Amino acid sequence: MRSHYCGDINKSHLGQEVTLVGWVNRSRDLGGVVFLDLRDREGLVQVVYDPDLKDVFDVASSLRGEFCVQVTGLVRARPDSQINSQMKTGEIEVLGKGLTIINASAPLPLSMDNHQNNSEEQRLKYRYLDLRRPEMAERLIFRAKVTSSVRRFLDSNGFLDIETPILTKATPEGARDYLVPSRTYKGQFFALPQSPQLFKQLLMMSGFDRYYQIVKCFRDEDLRADRQPEFTQIDIETSFMTSEQVMVKTEEMMRGLFLELLNVDLGEFPRMTYNEAMRRFGSDKPDLRNPLELVDVADLLKDVEFAVFNGPANDEEGRVAALRIPNGATLSRKQIDDYTKFVGIYGAKGLAWMKINDLAAGMEGIQSPVLKFLTESIVNDIISRTGAQTGDIILFGADKANVVAEAMGALRLKAGEDFDLLEGQWRPLWVIDFPMFEKINGGFHAVHHPFTAPRGVTAAELEANPANRVSDAYDMVLNGCELGGGSVRIHNAEMQSAVFRILGIEEEEAKEKFGFLLEALRYGTPPHAGLAFGLDRIIMLMTGASSIRDVMAFPKTTTAACPLTNAPGFANPAQLTELGIKVIEKVKAADAE
């Protein structure tokens, strides 16, 4: 039905007759001449109809936005005064000779222009229309180019694309599983995979030493702006490769991807330990474009007569950190109060501050509500350590170390944006040497997942001191976003059993959930390591979209619903009976009283 895509017509086609299909983006009748902007996935082209061909002209005059049409015509150059440098096809136009309405369009339920202000609910309900907008079409086309580039790289480096099951068993990966009832085994359930983790490890045991898959994963968890119940991973696993080799190879892939599609050279990725990232930036995924850093000052404040400072300063689990903001002395009291409310979101009880109005004036040049608790020597030491200058402000976080890191780390990002401090467009890094475990409610939990290997210890040494062990794990971070995370995996049953015990997974439970894995580890399992990238997040960053929902064809809302299909929905009672499932209705408040 077509000879060319609309967006591909250019000066090389001058004088040629072309057949185009697409949608009417805009129609204009200017003094007896009808101009159509015809759109398909590749872009727009201007089509001109004049009254010489009356029947065709009458049809052109009747068109409205989003009519689906077929056009035949002759490609000609636009007059110099009408060249549109903003359009890919702006140097040419098509003189229309034929026109067929393939399908008319009803009045549209949402705006289709570049400055649309449709609600997200509208956009997702009519997603098939929203995706016609050039901005959205370009993102999905770009997504296809990314996956194509990734496949070419991995294929050329000996990786095999192998599918793993979607119907599987629940795994302890830190989020709730989506359960699928079994008709043939009433009362039993499959789980949709949160990741192909165990299957890709089993593939390593099977001898397929380089695996990859661009795979759907599912998590029934509380949602945030960058989370979806179903998302896509670039999943990679290797045998006989160290963590360093995995990082080098996947870094090469990511650098090539950015160079090919954005003409951006990311350069070498620096390495930073988890402890250094948390100390300097309050985050394990620091945005290195932001030059602000947290500075520890607890040792300077242990003896001050101010409980807000000396309490955390003398607490083994406490921290007092200072954040210097260049030219921040311009902040008003209201703005400082707003910052105080902001850190309160992250559990901070307050925010002390110190303005350096005139460094040369000594204590007279310092303004702070806590100045009366500080000696001149302490103030000078704080100024020296933070590198503060006249016109700066120093903000203090004092609390448990995890609260200080989260609150001050978030404030660092906010202040960096507020004061327009970001430097450079792309700043990647690897964060390495994560803790093996974290303590939550008195018990140990795996920081990555329970199949991550510790670095440089035996199973006995790990069990003797799990709190202070480091995992052989690594995260790729770009501009404050985690692109992907991975680790060296445990490859012997003794170590895997030790990790399960530390996590409070008893032997019987381990056999029930992971008996197949423990059994497989007994048969010459090779050392192996891998990594999974969040494809949706990568596309979001590369396209400059504000949400991963804007780079997915048919995403869910933040409440995990689909306005387009009205999913989730109620099941047919006959199906529930066949599955042996009874639905318990939510008790209304009035009925519960």
Characterise the protein shown here.
By secondary structure, the protein is an alpha+beta fold. Helices cover 30% and strands 24% of the residues. It has helices at 54-61, 120-125, 127-130, 134-156, 197-205, 243-262, 274-281, 307-313, 333-344, 376-386, 401-418, 459-464, 493-502, 507-520, 535-543, 573-579, 589-592, and strands spanning 17-30, 33-40, 43-49, 68-77, 92-103, 160-161, 179-181, 189-191, 210-218, 230-239, 271-273, 294-296, 318-325, 352-356, 366-367, 393-400, 428-432, 437-440, 443-446, 473-478, 481-488, 528-534. Strands 6-9-10-22-21-20-17-11 form an eight-stranded mixed β-sheet, sandwiched between helices. The longest helix has 23 residues, at 134-156. The mean pLDDT is 94.
What tags apply to this protein structure?
alpha+beta; 30% helix; eight-stranded mixed beta sheet; 17 helices; 593 residues; globular
